[in-house]
Predict the 3D structure of the following.
Amino acid sequence: MVNKNARATNPLLGQDHWNIQLDENGRLKHFLTVEGLGSEILTEILDTAENFTSVNNRVVKKVPLLRGKTITNLFFEASTRTRTTFELAAKRLSADVLNINISTSATSKGESLLDTLYNLQAMQTDMFVIRHQDSGAAHFAARHVAPYISVLNAGDGRHAHPTQAMLDMLTIRQNKGHDFSGLRVAIVGDILHSRVARSQIHALNTLNTGVINVVAPRTLLPADIEKLGVKVHYNLQQGIQDADVVIMLRLQKERMQGAMLPSELEYYQQYGLTSDTLKLAKPDAIVMHPGPINRGVEIESSVADGSQSVILDQVSNGIAVRMAVMSMTLGTSAQQTGEEK
Amino acid sequence: MNLSKPLIIKQGRVIDPANKLDAVKDIYIKDGVVAAIEDQINHADADVIDANDMIVMPGIIDLCARPREPGLEHKATIASETIAASKAGITTLCCPPDTDPVIDETAVVDLINQGVKDAAHSHIVCLGALTSQLKGEHLSEMAALKQAGCIGVSNASAPIANTLVLRRALEYASSHDLTVFIQPNDPHLTNDGCAHEGAVATRLGLPGIPDAAESTVIARDLELIAEIGARAHFGRLSSARSVQLIEQAQKQGLEVTADVAIHQLFLSEMDLSTYNSHCHVQPPFRELRDRDVLRRAVAAGTIQAICSDHQPHEDDAKLHPFPATEPGISGLETLLPLTLKLVSENILNWPQAVAALTCEPAAILGIDKGQLSVGACADLTIIDPAKDWTLEAETMHSKGKNTPFLGWHFESQVRSTIINGRLMK
């Protein structure tokens, strides 16, 4: 008898880094990174999400697409927005949701990620939504879980946060139209530690964006970032000149201790988005931020709350995008093989 | 003492770079030593090994291998790893002092020597700690360690942040004619890094380790070595910049040697792109250009020796997301096969490859091995240069199956290993 919970002793490691996301029919099976997915799949995610926004505006915000499925939110890092929107997305698709929050300190003493996954897998989970502090954690999970399980990456280390990038793309599309080729996008802030920035860069490039600028001091830029297809600016004024979209990233306070920056004040003076600096962008530019916002550190309050800000639209779109990705991954291959398990 | 029967290795191609020998010979081995090397030797009382079409070379000396004993016996033991070594043609292992307990007292040397005596299937030599507990604060009792059998001193991969302590350690070691073995690594620049700082690490979101984490330490240490005239060996180089610094120092006449881990001559940062935790090594795999410069440096003799940097792990050590895995490769069983791949790729010729594994590491360690002169200790490796095989976890002898080379094909294989004149089973 085959024990389906038996642990693979020598896991296959040679699989293609991103193709592990697709099933044999080229459909989305896991959503781990935007990198390597074609514009057709990204557009499908955006179109599906667009359809779900109407569900979210109804009085009864529920569709029975994933009835009987179990989705486990496995969060090894603190999160409010991402976890709750994943939870809402799952519930609006009528799935059963299990939320597990494991603080970093507890895991360092306790069981390994792999053991946690195997235990939850034994409880007949159909999907894992994983946030983890280590880059590559979602790939690791996808490689080790049973074949009928889908894995969604809700943020792994500095590597990727693909649903965030897609909700950002949806927000840009709603405001600037379907053709990204004439757009100038500026991403400003701590690019080095940002999984959001990396996923946005891949998504913007796949959707054929005209110009992508990243703006930060060199201490907050990873090596060879221009090889991802962006232009680097150390100066905010140059970086957001004539931009259609300005994406501000959160600055974590710990960065001061790592000698990456002299002070919050100097950062704000050099890289904070104020109503004055925003005038350098196009008059109809939109301002985005993945949250949570540090007012007065990377963005002026009046800009965050101003008419050009679409920050709260991003949050609403987060639910629709996550519903889209859940229905696409669980609604295809998993449904067919679901009978066999 | 060796009571085994005399041996004659007949008609092998004997490659002994120390004696500039590369010819078909018979080797007569008696009482644990090489008794004669001649065109034809016949003795009625000797066992005969037919080495026709085989390569016969001095036993391999591995400059850096961690048998994990004492301290980490759940990963591997002296018994398991010396069996793996002898199966892989390696007859002497050099063990760095970062065991648990650290080799900074003679009692630990005695403990290891006892373990070797009881269990070892190959020779093991130890490096003593350069500083007490490898903390970089107090000098260890180097003279006593030397008397107890340590053949050099090292702070392993632990840093010495205080330059004055380093200078005094170099001075003290040279007073006692001890070579200092340095694995250059600046802990502040390495920080929490687990991959070469560059395009691949940026794409994968892995914290990067810059080239300078290695080269700044080499540059600093070379300045001190130049000033006080100590003898030093730099181990496990990973970058083109490091090679350049070592080359300059050698041209200036400093007594400086270097080695490289064999995996650095084959893999690069590109191999991390599947988050393959078997490619998590310290120092990290760098760019293809670095790999090529390292290869050329071995051919040119700037880097004298190739080692395994053997670090066996239990499976669980690698079953985590990449940054959380333990670095290191179980490398004993690929040291020779990969080095010989460099011969088939025309990077090295046979004598160069054999020298980098035998007489060069012996000279760096200052031990009387790695060559086949008459009267030398009879440690030999016999290779079948035309035997195809594939590396598989199931057939590895090391307790650690953690290697990115699983599934690789090799064209030559160790046929037998002779240690102290005895044919190893």
